[in-house]
Amino acid sequence: MAQLVNIAAGYIKAPDAVMAAQAELLRAAQASADRARSLTLAAVMCVGFFYAFWRVSPELRARVLCEAFLRRLFFLSAVVAILTTIGIVASLLFEAVRFFREISLFDFFFGTHWSPMTALRPGDTAAADEFVAGSSGSFGMVPVMAGTLLVAVIAMAVAVPIGLFSAIYTSEFASRRVRNIVKPTLEVLAGVPTVVYGFFAALTAAPFFRDLGLVVGLDVSSQSALAAGGVMGIMIIPFISSLSDDVITAVPQSLRDGAYGLGSTRGETIIRVVLPAAFPGLVGAFLLAISRAIGETMIVVMAAGVAANMTINPLESVTTVTVQIVMLLTGDNEFDSVKTLSAFALGMTLFVITLLLNVAALTASRRLGQRYE
Amino acid sequence: MNNPIEMIQPDAKTQARFEKIAQGLKKRHAASRRLKTYGIMAIVTAISFLAILLTTIISNGYTAIQQTELQIALTIPAEKLQNDDGAIDPVKARNFNWNGLIKKAFRAEFPDVTAMLDKRALGEILSKNAGYDLRRQIEAKGVIPTGGTKLWIKTSDDVDMLMKGRLDRNLDESQRRLSDQQIGWIDKLVADDRIRLVFNDTFFTAADSREPESAGVLGATVGSAMALFVTVLLALPLAVMAAVYLEYFAPPGRVTDFIEVNINNLAAVPSIVFGLLGLAVFLGFFGMPRSAPLVGGMVLALMTLPTIIIATRASIRAVPTSIRDAALGLGASRMQAAIDHILPLAAPGILTGTIIGIAQALGETAPLIMIGMVAFIVDVPTTLTDPATALPVQIYIWSDSAERAFYERSSLAIMVLLTFLITMNISAVLLRRKFEKKW
Amino acid sequence: MSDFLSPNFLVFAATIVAAFLSFYLATGRVRKQAIASQTKSHSLNQYYGFYVSLWVLVPAILLALIWMFAADPMLTSAAKARMECRLSEPT
Amino acid sequence: MDTVVDMAKAIKIQAKDVNVFYGEKQALNNVSIDIEDRSVTAFIGPSGCGKSTFLRCFNRMNDVIPSCRVEGSIMMGDVDVNNPQTDPVLLRARIGMVFQKPNPFPKTIFENVAYGPRIHGLAQSKAELDDMVEDSLKKAGLWGEVADRLADQATGLSGGQQQRLCIARAIAVGPDVLLMDEPCSALDPIATSVIEELISELQQRFTILIVTHSMQQAARVSQKTAYFHLGTLVEYGDTKDVFTLPKNEQTEAYISGKIG
Q: Which residues, 6 or more positions from B261, have their beta carbon under 8 angstroms from its beta carbon?
C-alpha cells in the first residue's frame, strides 16, 4: 500500500500495469480531494471572516476576546504534556493488551525463557512459527529483566562511588575556583550522546575487557555485561555527581557550624552530619540514576548481547529490555505479529518501572525539602 | 605572653580529657584527609574517563579526514561522450563504462599480471565507485581532456587502511584483507610516487554508501538539521506558551498540579519510550511516512518539550515581579504584561534552554531508530518527508559495519557530532553570560 | 522539486494572505466606525485585526487538521480496498 | 555568691589586639579583653558591630569562612587560640558553642547528645555513653522532658527544647568555655526565660560568653558586659556599672535606646 502511495506521488515507477492504473486512480482521487479541500477551506475562511467582520465595531471588546483565545491556546499547550503522557500510556497499553491476548500475563512476567526470534530460524515452518510464538516459553521476560538489572547494577557500582565522592569534593572541599572548573567538566560527560558511549563500549571497552580476560585467564564475552554496564556507569557519573552536589549544598550551613562547633573534623562533619542530612535527597538522586540506567538504550544496543541469558556473571553476555525493543522493532517485521507486540509489552514494563522510580525519587527529595524549609 | 595576670588553668580532670582528645586527633585528621583524597581520586577518574573517551575517538577518527588516491594514466574517448557540438552528453556519459575504462588503464600498467584471479585482485585496489567518481569529476570540469591524461582516482578502503597504517602487514596473509601480492603492487605504486593522501571531501559532501571511501555525513547532517528544525518549530512555541500559562494564568488546583507532575515525569521517561509513542501513534495511527525527518522532529519535540518548559519557567520566574506589577499598574492586562514585558526579558534564558534542549535532541538516537530513521539511504534528503537518517544514527549504522574503514569514519562522524554539540553548548553558555542579569 | 508551487503550498500561502488581508480590513473598518460614531474604541485597533484574523485562521486550521487526519487515510484505504478487490480477481 | 565573685577575679581568656578582616573590609579593630573564669560575659551592640565575629574568634569558627582573616592573640590558659599550630578541632572540644538558630542534627535525641563523645572517643562503653548523655541532658535541664523519648527525632522537639538540646550537645564534650551566639533570638519569651535560667546555672561550671541583642537579657544573665560599636570595643566592665553608669556616650545612647 505504501508502495502505491509512493507510485501515485511519482516517487517510484509502477512495476506493472495494474499498479499503475491503481496509482492513477488514487492520484485522481487525491487531486479531487485536494480541490474539495481547498474549496471547503475557502468557504470556511469566508464564513469566519464575514461573521467576525460584521461584528467589528468600536463597542466590541476585541482585546478581551483575543486574550481569552490566547489564554485558551496557552492552556492547550500546557495540556500537550498530559496528551503526551496519555499518548504514551494509550499506545503502549493498546499494543500490550493485544499482546496479552496471545500470551498470558503470568507467562510474560514470570516466564524464564525469552526467545522471540526462535521462529525465524531457518527450517521452521509456518506452523512451527505459530506454535513457538504461541507457546508459553518464548516470551518470559525474567531473563531480560535480570539482564537489565545486572547492567544497571554494574553501572551504579561504577557511578555511585565516583559520582558521590566527586560531589563530596566539589561541595565540601573544593575552592570556588576549582568547583567552577570541575563541575562543568564533569557535566561534559552528560552532554556526550549515548551513541558515542555505545561506540566506545562496543569497539573499545568490550575488546579491552575481553583481552584483559585472556591475559588473566578468564573467559570474557565480547559483549560482556561488564563493558556495557561499566561504560553506562561513566555516562551516569555526572547525573549522580551534579544531583548529589545540589543535595549536599542544600544542607543548611547551620548544621555544619554545629558539627564544627563541637570539634568535628571536616571529614566527620561530612560523614556523620552532612551526608545523613542529605540522605533522602541522595536516595532520590540514585533512584533517578537507576531509572536512567534501566531506560538507556544505545549503549546496550551496541555493546550488550541479544540472547537472553539468565546469569549474574558480569563477564557473560546478557540482554536488556531496551535491546529487545530495538531488536524486535527494527528490520521489516510485520507490525501485528506477536513479536512486535511483545516489544510494546516490554516498553510498557519499562515505562512503569521508570515512572515508579521517578515518583519514588521525587518523593524522597521532597522529604528532604520539607525537612529544611 | 608578656601578660602579668596569672591565667587560670582547667582542673586536672578536664585536662586529662583534653589530653585524651588530643591523642586521637592524628587519626581523625588522617581520616578527613583520606576523604578528600577519595574525592580527588573520583574526580580524576571521571575526568580521565572523559579524556580516554575523547582520545580514543580522535585517535581512531582523525585519519578519516584523508583519503588515499591513486594516479592513473587514462585516455578518455571523447567521441563516445560528446554530442555533435562538442559538449558532454549526459545520457552518453551515464551509459559509458567508466569502471571498465579505469580498470583497463590500470591493468595496462601491470602487463605481467595475466591470470584471471590476479587481475581481479589488481582491480580490488581501486574503489568500486571509481568509475562514478571519474564521471562526476569529468562532468564537473565540463571538458574532456584530449589524449592521455593523468588522473587521481580513489583507492579501495583496504588500500586506504594500509596506507594509514591501520592494516597490520605482519599479520598472516589469511588474516589480512590484502594479499602479499596486492601489498607488493601497492608498494610499487608508492615507490613510483603514485599514491597520495588527500583531504577527504567526499566525507563532508556525500550521503551514506556501501563503500567507505564514498560514504559521507552530509545526508545524515541534513536529516538531523531537518528533524531539529521541526523540533524547534514545534517545541519552542508550545513550551513558551505552556510555561507562560503555568507561570501566569494557571489557577492553583488539580489540573495545574497534574500538568506539572506530567511535565516532570516526561522529563525522566526513557527516550526509547518516545520512540515507541512515535511508532504507534505517528506511524501506526496517523499513517505518517517512515524514516521521515518530519516524524523524527515531532518525536524529538515531544521529548525536549519538558526540558524547554522547565527552562522557560525558570527564566520567567527570574524576571522580578516588580516588572509585572509595574506593567499591570500602568493598566496593561495580564496577557499584555506577559507578552510585552516578561517574555522579552526572559528571552535569553528561553533561548539558552532551547539550545540545550536541541543539543540533547541532536544526540538522541533511540527514538529515531524506532521510527525507522535507521535505513540505508544514499541520497541527501530534500524535503521533510524524504527518508533520511540522522547524524547519531549514521554513527550507529557505521559502527555496526564490518569494514575497518567504517570504524574510522564513524569516529570522524562522532567528532563532527561533538563539534556541533560543543558549538551549541558554548553558544548557550556565552548567551547566558552575556545576558545574565542579577535583579 | 516543485514544492513551492505544490497545491499544499498555494493553499498555505493563500491562507496567510487572507489572514493579513482581514487584519487590515478589520482595523480599517473599526477606525472608520470610530470616527463616524465619534466614540473611542474599546480596544486598540490592532486587536480588532487580530480578532478577525483569528476567525479566519483558526477554523481553517482546524478543518485542515481534521482533513489531514481523517480524509487522507480514508482515501488511501478506499484505494486499497479497490485494489484488493482487483487483485482478488483472477487474471 | 561570694565565692563566685572571688573566683571571677581569675582570668580565663585574654584577647589582645584582635583584628578581623573579611577580604579587604575590617570587621574588628584592635579589640582587647580579659574574660573572667566561671562568669557570664555579654557582648552587646548594634547589629553589624562585630560582636558575633568576635565571639567566633574564640573557637576559630571564622576559619570556616574562606575570606576571613584574624590577627592578634587570644590566650586561653597556655593555649594560643589564634596560632596556626593550634588544632581547631581540639580547641572546639574545649570551647563549646551554641548558635543563633537551634541546629539539632537530623538524628535521634540520644544521638545528638552522644555525637560529641562519639567523635572524640570519650566513652569507653555504651553504659558510660548513656551516663554522659543523661548527665548532659540533666545539666541542660532537658532530661525530665525527653528521658522517655531519647530515640525520637530531635527535629520533632519544640524550638526551646531544641536549643537546650544543642546546649546539652555542647556540654557533653566537656568543654570549660561555652560560646552562645544570640541563643534566644529564635525563641519565644517562655523558652527564652528557661534558657536564661539555665545559663545562670551553667555559670557555676563554665565560663560563658554570650552575644545578645537584648540588653535586658544581658542585664539579667551576665556579670560582665562588653559594648561594641562599628568593630571596636567601646566599653567593658561589670554589667551593673555598664548599665547604670556608662562611661561612654555611645554606650549610653545605645542603652537608653537612642541608637540600635
A: none
- Cβ atoms of residues A357 and A287 within 8 Å: yes
Residues 6+ apart with CB under 8 A from B254: none
Which DSSP string corresponds to B15-64? HHHHHHHHHHHHHHHHHHHHHHHHHHHHHHHHHHHHHHHHHHHHHHHGGG
Using CA coordinates, name the residue in chain C closest to B285: C69
Task: Give per-residue pLDDT as tens, B358-387.
Answer: 999 999 999 999 998 888 888 899 888 889
Grid-cell match 525493543, residue found:
A325
d(CA A303, CA A312): 17
Nearest to A65 by CA among B329, B338, C54: C54
Kind plus residue range of the DSSP H or E element containing D34: strand D25-36
Lowest mean pLDDT among B146-150, B217-221, B275-279: B146-150
Q: Does residue C1 belong to any structural domain of this protein?
A: no
Kindly report the CATH number that applies to the domain delimited by A142-372.
1.10.3720.10
Residue C61 lies in a domain: yes
**Full residue range of the structural domain in which residue C31 is found:** 7-88
pLDDT for the residue numbered C1: 37
* Chain B / chain C CB contacts < 8 angstroms: 8
Q: Per the structure block, which three cell numbers stand in for B364?
A: 538522541
Whether C56 sits inside 8 A of A52 (CB atoms) is: yes
- Which residues 65-124 of chain B have a CB within 8 Å of chain D? none
Domains and CATH numbers, chain B: 67-198 (no CATH), 218-435 (1.10.3720.10)
Q: Cβ contacts (< 8 Å) between D34 and chain B: which residues?
A: 5
**Domain assignment of residue C40, yes or no:** yes
ipTM of the complex: 0.87
Q: Is C82 exposed, middle or buried (0-12, 13-18, 19+ CB in 10 A)?
A: middle
From chain A, the residues in CB contact with C26 under 8 A are 52-53, 56
With beta carbons less than 8 A apart as the criterion, state whether D182 and D213 touch: yes
